[in-house]
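Homework help thread (please don't just give me the answer)

Our assignment gives two proteins as sequence + structure token strings and asks us to describe the second one. The first is just a warm-up. Here they are:
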Amino acid sequence: MDNIAKSHLTQNEHVYLESEHTHWIYYLVEGTVRTYKIHPTKSNSMTFQIIHKGSFFGYYEVFTEDRKRMSSAAVMSKNAVIEKYRIEDFLIKLIEDEEFYYELFSSCVNYEMHLWKRLLIFREYETFRKIAWMLIDMASSIEHNEEILEIKDYTHLLLGQYTGSSRQTITSVLNEYRKLGLIEYDRDKILIKKTMMQKLLKT
């Protein structure tokens, strides 16, 4: 596709803001991005999705009638490299490339299902299990070990924003997870024992 703009952003910089009108779709080359919505009457926010490298994002709203962002997107990692595409170029590719069309269509459907699941868990789970689910959702796999997930460059504030919990609650719950052997710390990473954490969610 032509007209590719590439941006180099740092932690907490915004890719786009809620309520903006848009004609752009993004591809994450490096780093991690989160999409979130600010509570209208409180200072906290709710994370919709964590975007890992190699993924398109910001495409959902460009196919709506008013093309208005329903959330903001900000960089979570220390640095991120992001490619930006005009929707007009995407429409051409969607027409010409059937495989790409079905891939993006599937992504839109999966995003909607993921969002509904997040909203349900956010509302129905008690804090101890909610944070467990959010950690799994936030983590990425470690190469050569499918049983271990990792979260890089985290802060308790960031985890609190993602789960809708205070930093004090995050600290308390993470300490309990560590006592139970569900997580370990490795410098700037949280290592999550995937199977054990998933069992916790089923109890």
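The one we have to describe:
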Amino acid sequence: MLIRPQSSGDDSAIDRNLMSVGAVLFDIDNTLVDHHTSAVRGISEHLARLYPELSSNDLEPATATWLELEEIHMNGYLSGACTFQEQRRRRVRAMLDVLRREPLSEAGIDEWFAGYLHRYESSWCLFPDVVPALDQLRRLKNSPILGVLTNGDASQQNQ
């Protein structure tokens, strides 16, 4: 996933492979942090809390729909079609429509999303190979500068 130079246990071979690399940049979502798993856990828990009458048969397609809506509306944000906050609101409006729920005010939509966001952020987890890969890069004789970049919202990513 991250950097997998082949080595027979000899770090000097890895060091030679990376000797000319001055820096390595990592994306946050789905490179370092398992965004997909966090989003699935977050929305599943959120929907189950808000709508206890939903069966597990209902939750699975609703979760898949949420992930589709995330992609659609995040792409709208990334293309400049809407603000970061508005893409969140669009996702919630569309989800409420799919769930056949009454529309909410903007404040209600923001509150709905905040509940999801809390559960999503509580589910953040690194991929299992992130720490070993970063440790391996730090141990190199000519260790590159390590950096993180993202196309996400800066205030959320800086948490």
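TA reply:
I won't write it for you, but here's a hint about the kind of observation we're looking for: The mean pLDDT is 87.
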